[in-house]
Amino acid sequence: xxPIHPQFITDxxxxxxxxxxxxxxxxxxxxxxxxxxIRLYDEAKADTEPSIPIEEAFNSxxxxxxxx
Length: 68
What we know:
Blueprint lengths: L6 E4 L5 E4 L2 H25 L7 H14 L1
Antiparallel strand pairs: 1-2
C-alpha cells in the first residue's frame, strides 16, 4: 500500500477536512474499486441459485425476440 500524506484543515463551521495529493487520492479510489470488485465476485460465487451457460441464455433471449 502506498503511504498517504493527509493534511487536516478545519472549515469555518469547525468541521475537519482532509486534503490529499491527487495521486494518493486516485490510488485510494482505485483500491476501493478493486475491493468492491472482490466483494461482488465473492458474492456471486456464494450465490447458490442455479445458473445456465451464457450461450444458452443468449439463445433463449433470441428465441423470445423472434416470437414477437
